Amino acid sequence: MLIEINLAPGAAAPRVRSRKTPTLALPSLPSMGGDARTYLSVGAGVLLLGLMIFGYWSMGQREVELNAAIEAQLEDSTRYASTIALVNSLQARQDTVTQKIGVIRSVDTRRYVWPHLLDEISLAVPAYTWLTQLTSTEPSDSLQTGPAFTIQGSSGSTQAMTRFMKNLETSAFVEGVTLITSAQEIVEGRTIQRFSLEARYSEADAAAMEMVPFVVLE
């Protein structure tokens, strides 16, 4: 750019020559007509349809996963149910076996009760005394461990009957000896004493049991 300066008085003001800057002319955009709005509507519809399809697909995938989880839970429940049934069956068998073992032990512990009682009663019978009946009775006490029994018999005198009762009381297997009835009768011109006793079995200490062999070896 050139600047001319006129130093003469009265001269006109200098003129500045400027170079014009070229400008870029942009083409004007065409106004949106009906076709553009149609394109936008179609694009929005396609987008919405895609979103709907994706949503249905996601729901289908989720349903498949849930069905697989439900089937797995059902399989686990079936397996656990079978295991529980097996455990219950084994528990029932164990209870039955335990009950049978208890019965066997009860029978085993009492299989020598009456042999001991018969042995002790026979040893307690004094002279001039004989027994006519021995009967097992129901125990009066629920805590009683052994059977109760009654003895009926006769003796030649009251002293013989009293001696029999004392002999029973000294036994380690007999307790609670009680006289129920006592009456005198005349048989063949002789006076005898009819009596009825009751007693119960007592579980003796193992040390009081005498071990006697069945066969004596010479």
**Average of pLDDT:** 77
CATH architecture of the largest domain, by name, is 2-Layer Sandwich
**Helix-strand makeup class:** alpha+beta
The helix content, as a percent range, equals: 40-55%
**Total number of strands:** 4
The arrangement of helices and strands along the chain is HHEEHEE
CATH topology (level 3) name of the largest domain: Alpha-Beta Plaits
Task: Show unreliable segments.
Answer: 26-32, 211-218
Count of distinct structural domains: 2
CA(first)-CA(last) distance: 160 Å
Keywords:
218 residues; alpha+beta; Alpha-Beta Plaits; four-stranded antiparallel beta sheet; 20% strand
Descriptive report:
With 218 residues, this protein is of the alpha+beta class. It folds into 2 domains: 42-111; 113-204, Alpha-Beta Plaits (2-Layer Sandwich). The protein is 46% helix and 20% strand. The chain has 3 helices and 4 strands. A 4-stranded antiparallel β-sheet has the order 1-2-4-3. Helix 2 runs antiparallel to helix 3. The chain is rod-shaped. The protein starts with 33 loop residues before the first helix and ends in a 17-residue tail after the last strand.
